[in-house]
Structures are given as structure tokens and as C-alpha cells.
Amino acid sequence: MTPLNAEELAALRKFDTPTICNILEIVAPARRGIGYTTRQLNCIFPNLPPMVGYAKTATVRAKEPGPLKGEAYRALRFKYFDYLGDGPRPCVSIIQDLDDGQPGYGSFWGEVNSNVHKALGCLGVVTNGSVRDLDMIAENFQLLSGVVAPSHAYVHLVDFDVSVNVHGMFVHSGDLIHADRHGAVVIPHEVARDIPKASDKLIKREDVIIRAAKTPGITVEQMKQAYIDADKIHG
After folding, report:
1. What are the backbone angles phi and psi of residue 182, rounded to the nearest 5°?
2. pLDDT tens string 24-49
3. May I ask the CATH architecture of the domain 6-190?
4. How would you class 40 by CB atoms within 10 Å of its CB: exposed for 0-12, middle for 13-18, buried for 19 or more?
5. Which tens digits make up the pLDDT trace of 170-191?
6. Separation in Å, CA 20 to CA 70, 136, 218
7. 137 contacts 44 by C-beta, under 8 angstroms
8. Are 106 and 62 within 8 A, CB to CB?
9. Residue ranges per structural domain of the chain
10. Cβ distance 82 to 16 under 8 Å?
11. CA end-to-end span of the chain, whole Å?
């Protein structure tokens, strides 16, 4: 896999995440019903541009103290830092909270971890867990979370560089992620470079319908014809 260059990543950032999902229906139709978040996430900074980057995955728990203490836990954390610092940039942290029945009991994300992850190349996080310290988050670091909560409780890193499931979106380490205030989606890398061109087809199809819908006095038959005409567009 050759990572996308800065220009190619910038081209994907021009689209919102729902539009990316629509385009994937054209370039990767088998992905129509999978690969995206299916439950609402709290977008803490909705005015930030979409995140487009490579997934750095991890799992956490917070309801009970973790099994590692002191130097043993520090060693795990430092290995996690090595993982964050390796591979293509930019990256997006994808973290699954494993606390059964109550993910988000304690927050992994706040002032400290947002600054640390930003320093190590992350644009933000997508998690079913919780976030806090909302007024002190690293600048331009996006948070998409299942919960907003005040305490970190016993939050601890369980594992990293693993497959995770965040609100129905299954993610493997290194997957290409697109995320904004609507949620997140995995872009299959083999079609990522096809998306800007395929967007032209989508825009043409939608434009036929939208222009018809905005036509004063349009009839039902004319609206039906607009859909027929849109379906005829193949490029």
C-alpha cells in the first residue's frame, strides 16, 4: 500500500463524510451497508474540517483498575507511543471502550492525551468512550465520542494495533478514515484515489434532481422524469 500524498488527502477533505459514503456506493458498491459508524457520536468541534488519516487503533477500560501497575504500565504506554509514531501521517485515533454495558465510564481523552496524540501525528479521535476537558483540548484536535463525562475513573490502555468496533464501524490498524460531525467511515485504500473523479458523477446525478425539485410548479410526472434522467448519467 502506497500512502496517499498530501494533495490526495486534501482532495478527500473537500467532501463531508456523508458525501464520501455516497461516492463509495459508486466506486465500492459492496461497502454500501458496512464500514461506517451507525450510531450518533458527539462531535465536540463541529466547525473543524473533516479528518482524513490512517487509523491508529487501541482498546481501553475504565470501570475497574487495570492489571498493570507502575513500570509495567509505563512500558505498555511507551510501546503505544512507538506505535503512534510509526507509519504514514496524518493518523486518526480509533479507540474502542470495552467496558460492557457502560462504555465511557471514565475518559481516556482530555487536555493531556489530546496534546500528546496531536504531538505524535493524530488529527483527533473517534471513540465509543468518553471525552472531557473540553475547554482545554489541543488546538484543532477533533473529538468524536459516545459520551461526555467528567472523570477518568480507572481508565487504562488495554491493547493497541488491534481490530476495533466503534459504533458499528469495524477498523483495522492502518485503515484510511474519513470523519466529521456526521460520524466516520473507512475508505478502502484501493478506491481512495478514485473518489474525486467519481464525485463528478454523483454531483451531476444529484444536480438533475435538485434543480427539478427547486423548479416552481413542478409536477409529479416531471419529478419522476428527473429521477429517470439522473439514472442515465454514467460519467
Report:
1. -85, -20
2. 999 999 999 999 999 999 999 999 99
3. 3-Layer(bba) Sandwich (3.50)
4. exposed
5. 999 999 999 999 999 999 999 9
6. 44, 31, 30
7. yes
8. yes
9. 6-190, 195-231
10. no
11. 27
